[in-house]
Write a structure and sequence with these properties.
The complex is a heterodimer of chains A (466) and B (395).
Chain A lengths: L17 E5 L20 H13 L4 E4 L7 E2 L2 E2 L10 H11 L4 E7 L5 H14 L4 E6 L4 H4 L13 H16 L7 E4 L4 E3 L6 E5 L4 E5 L11 E5 L3 H10 L2 E4 L4 H13 L12 E6 L1 E3 L3 H15 L2 H12 L25 E2 L10 H15 L3 H8 L5 E3 L1 H13 L5 E4 L9 H13 L12 H5 L4 H10 L1
Parallel strand pairs in A: 1-2, 1-17, 2-5, 5-6, 6-11, 11-12, 12-13, 13-17, 14-16
Antiparallel strand pairs in A: 3-4, 3-15, 7-8, 9-10
Helix pairs in contact in A: 1-2, 2-3, 3-5, 9-11, 12-13
Chain B lengths: L8 E6 L22 H13 L4 E4 L26 H8 L7 E7 L5 H14 L5 E5 L4 H7 L13 H21 L7 E4 L4 E3 L9 E2 L4 E2 L14 E5 L3 H10 L2 E4 L4 H17 L8 E10 L3 H15 L8 E5 L1 H12 L5 E6 L2 H18 L12 H4 L8 H4 L1
Parallel strand pairs in B: 1-2, 1-13, 2-3, 3-4, 4-9, 9-10, 10-11, 11-12, 11-13
Antiparallel strand pairs in B: 5-6, 7-8
Helix pairs in contact in B: 1-10, 3-5, 5-6, 6-7, 9-10
Classes of the chains: A alpha/beta (466), B alpha/beta (395).
């Protein structure tokens, strides 16, 4: 049953849900073996995905980034999708085939320079008429650094300090033009009002640069800023600097705890609770009925975790070659190798297992208690679909999460490229719209408009006034 | 003119409202639109209507300046510009045939980023991408990055400039190796073994140079053209050497036919010295053009703009003012010196680009010297270049 909006009025104003879509890539979420799976490189895939998300009135499309191919056991990892295009180039091309949807890209602050990145984001904002967003991330590993002039020398403890200074420097560059410098008066011959337009000087621990920025102020003033990362430092960074945060808290309880924590940090930076959106990534299995969706979810998990994939994932914890084990058999009885050299390179998730011995003990106990094989264990302990059900169930559940402050919305990660969003757009979005919790059309042209964020100039005035 | 001239290749170089510093003051110019997608889309689709091989897009990592090395603080000329790779990718889905060749500055950029950006431009344009590699010796641009200081440079033939060009050559070498770091059929999607790729068809490039080392492989699979087009502007021996070693097209700046012949001979000698004598290398002549049906009108326009600018316009390239027929004569004369094509710099983009596509092109077509339809789907195809074998795969 769909929720009647006329008979039972909500007791408080309903929160509007924010929805975005992540083009899935180099991880085992993506089921590339499905006959419907298309290219993850060809532009037509990105165009289809972006147009679907725009048809559904989503806030934005999100692209992750990778700067080195993953390796495991000294070999390039070959079981997941490998390879992706350049973030800026794809997002700018997508601006040509869409009109409203926001274009969000992850760009690393370690292997780039502020002048160049600020130029590219300001350019994307101009060329998309105000739809650019930047997910600021950081990397410190020498492994990735081997592809760059800069190398891999950044100590882990400096990663947020560089990221913060990088973002602060980029903001100085974005703000170095005020928006009224270009007069271009053809009669008098004055192009620039001010010869010093774009002037900046930044001296700090990581950057010591000065000169003139050469991109005039862009439609959004500066791109929307996203932060991803769950550490104490990451949460503070987001509370101080970001417009939105990507989180991984998939359950209602964990989501609410995270939401409460992060939102409570805003006041000390002179910010209101609605100035930082919390948008967890979410996967889903959607079918006509709940029972069919449960079956689909099980099937997809089996496709996502082949026997070979299960062994490779177990290696994250065991940190040793497990290729001689039978994925349909019991867990290894050897202990994890707790040496410094990790068998998997270029992956964030291996850091989740800070105490591999404890994890191994826990997993062995789980497997014995449930009579699970290696593959069963990885399927059960790995990421599962956040939302499983019929269109009505998905719409109801997503709304429940948002209304109970587990999030402000979700970044959906379908398991199929590029059509994995189609059914959600056609069947779930209309229900959310009927419930009055999701827009039926875009209200403004820019991503800031979609997200309900003020233009940075207005926001600065507010902070100064408060 | 001979009855059956060799078909020419034609490119147009886009920079702001045009190459004359007062071009923005022409009524046809749209200086307030320079930072919009519509402006660039209109120009590039106009070039495509004229069946041109490619457009290049100028770029720089600082404000434009009338001085060679320093900012000029002027407010009477166009200042500010958008990243050329992004402009190219914004327009790519809206065009179908024309090559898109943005400028990239090797001095301050990461070859890994540039390689994947141009490979991606090749994907979003279905095989029409290239790059024009450039160095910068401007101290103010180095200060925008803060990672190196560049000494004062007063002429080309100094060790510091040699070093910048050597670095650019390394940059291009890394970019090219990264394009080849995936074999074309590396993606196998083998459901039987669960392998998405055949990792034996991916290659570390292990580049070690004076200025950087890069491991590879690329994160982006080999682009549609295999190797997008690499091009460079060259005025003297050091950049000629970069063209001869690294490029598919060199843009040169002869002032007369004898000069063109001398340049071509020097570039070809460098090409032999680089061991590339058998490989195709285009040498395009660069010209700034004022084009009007009435040659006197073109010259009058040049004078009017010079007056507005307060000084006569000078350029590293020959400045031509005249009619399309006169320009066609000149190009065909230059062609006899061994140039294989031309890159025209419209003095006023809004005026001289349409004059090229609607005046010069029909004139050349009448003479049998230019295509009447696009005859290939990729930029390499338009330029008569085969899709190259993968160097990493052969190794």
């Amino acid at each position: 049953m769909t929720s009647p909006t006329t008979s039972s009025k909500p007791r408080r104003p309903v929160k509007q849900i924010h929805l975005a879509a992540h083009f899935p890539g180099v991880n085992n979420t993506t089921v590339w073996s499905d006959p419907r799976a298309g290219s993850h490189i060809e532009f037509s895939s990105f165009a289809h995905f972006a147009r679907t998300a725009e048809r559904a009135k989503f806030d934005f499309l999100f692209l992750a980034e990778g700067l080195r191919l993953r390796e495991q056991g000294g070999h390039i990892y070959d079981l997941d999708v490998v390879g992706r295009p350049d973030t800026f180039t794809v997002l700018t091309a997508l601006a040509a085939v869409t009109e409203r949807i926001g274009l969000t890209g992850t760009i690393n602050s370690t292997f780039n320079e502020p002048y160049e990145v600020a130029r590219q984001f300001a350019g994307l904002d101009h060329l998309s008429d105000g739809r650019a967003a930047w997910n600021v991330v950081t990397s410190w590993d020498a492994f990735t650094g081997e592809n760059f002039r800069r190398g891999g020398f950044l100590p882990q403890e400096e990663r947020y300090s560089r990221a913060k200074e990088f973002l602060a420097t980029a903001k100085e560059l974005f703000d170095s033009w005020h928006g009224d410098e270009i007069i271009a008066d053809q009669d008098t011959g004055t192009f620039l009002k001010d010869a010093k337009a774009g002037s900046f000087t930044h001296t700090g621990q990581h950057f010591d640069i000065h000169g003139q920025f050469n991109v005039p102020r862009s439609p959004q003033g500066r791109p929307v800023i996203f932060q991803a990362g769950d550490s104490e430092e990451g949460r503070e960074f987001a509370a101080a600097e970001a417009d939105a945060i990507f989180s991984r808290h998939g359950t209602l309880e964990a989501g609410r705890a995270f939401y409460t924590d992060v939102k409570s940090r805003l006041a000390k930076y002179g910010r209101r609770r609605d100035q930082l959106l919390i948008l967890p990534a979410a996967t889903f299995a959607l079918a006509d009925t709940d029972a069919e969706a449960e079956e689909l979810a099980r099937e997809v998990r089996r496709q996502q975790v082949s026997g070979a994939t299960a062994l490779k994932h177990l290696e994250f914890v065991w940190n040793r070659d497990l290729s001689s084990y039978d994925p349909e058999g019991p867990l290894p009885d050897v202990d994890p190798d707790v040496g410094d050299n990790h068998i998997a390179q270029g992956r964030a998730q291996v850091r989740m297992y800070r105490d591999p011995m404890a994890t191994a003990r826990e997993w062995r106990a789980l497997a014995e208690a449930n009579n699970w094989s290696i593959r069963d264990l990885v399927i059960h302990t790995g990421n599962r679909q956040n939302f499983v059900g019929s269109p009505a169930t998905l719409a109801r559940t997503i709304d429940e999460y948002v209304q109970s402050d587990a999030s402000d919305g979700f970044i959906l990660v379908p398991h199929l490229t590029p059509t994995g969003l189609d059914e959600f757009a056609d069947k779930v979005v209309p229900l959310l719209q009927e419930q009055g919790v999701f827009r039926t059309d875009y209200e403004g042209p820019t991503l800031r408009d979609h997200l309900g964020l003020a233009h940075p100039d207005t926001e600065t005035e507010e902070r100064q006034a408060s | 003119m001979s009855a059956n001239p060799t078909p020419l290749h034609l490119a147009v170089a886009l920079d702001g409202t045009g190459w004359h510093p007062a071009s923005w003051r022409e009524p046809v110019s749209r200086p307030r639109d320079l930072f919009t997608a519509a402006y660039w889309t209109d120009l590039i689709t106009e070039a495509e209507r004229g069946l041109l091989d490619l457009v290049t897009l100028e770029d720089g990592l600082g404000l434009q300046s009338s001085h060679f090395l320093d900012p000029d603080g002027r407010t009477d000329q166009v200042r500010g510009r958008l990243d050329a790779v992004l402009i190219a990718s914004r327009v790519a889905p809206l065009t179908q045939h024309i090559g898109l060749v943005p400028t990239v500055v090797a001095t301050h950029t990461e070859p890994f980023h540039i390689s994947k950006a141009i490979a991606t431009l090749d994907y979003v344009s279905s095989g029409r991408a290239g790059l024009r590699v450039q160095i910068t010796a401007r101290p103010n641009e180095a200060a925008h990055f803060g990672r190196r200081t560049l000494g004062r440079i007063d002429r080309y033939d100094t060790p510091a400039v040699h070093e910048l060009f050597d670095e650019a050559a390394d940059h291009v070498e890394v970019v090219r190796r990264l394009w080849d770091s995936w074999e074309d059929d590396a993606e196998i999607r083998d459901t039987a073994t669960g392998r998405f790729i055949d990792r034996d068809k991916l290659h570390y490039i292990d580049f070690e140079g004076r200025h950087f080392s890069v491991k590879g492989p690329s994160i982006t699979p080999r682009p549609p053209q295999g190797q997008p087009i690499v091009s460079a502007l060259a005025h003297e021996t050091v950049p000629y050497r970069l063209v001869a070693r690294s490029a598919d097209i060199g843009y040169v700046t002869p002032f007369d036919t004898d000069g063109a012949r001398a340049i071509v001979s020097e570039v070809r000698a460098e090409q032999r010295a680089a061991g590339r004598a058998d490989e195709p290398l285009h040498i395009f002549g660069d010209l700034v053009v004022f084009l009007d049906g009435d040659p006197a009108a073109a010259r009058a326009r040049q004078e009017r703009l010079d007056t507005l600018a307060g000084e006569p316009y000078t350029s590293d390239a020959r400045i031509f003012a005249g009619s399309p027929a006169e320009l066609a004569d000149l190009l065909q004369e230059f062609e006899t010196a061994g140039l294989t094509g031309f890159r025209l710099r419209p003095a006023v983009a809004g005026h001289d680009l349409p004059a090229i596509t609607r005046g010069l092109v029909p004139e050349l077509q009448r003479r049998g010297a230019f295509r009447r339809a696009y005859e290939a789907d990729t930029l390499r195809g338009l330029l008569g270049l085969a899709r190259p074998a993968n160097r990493c795969a052969a190794a």
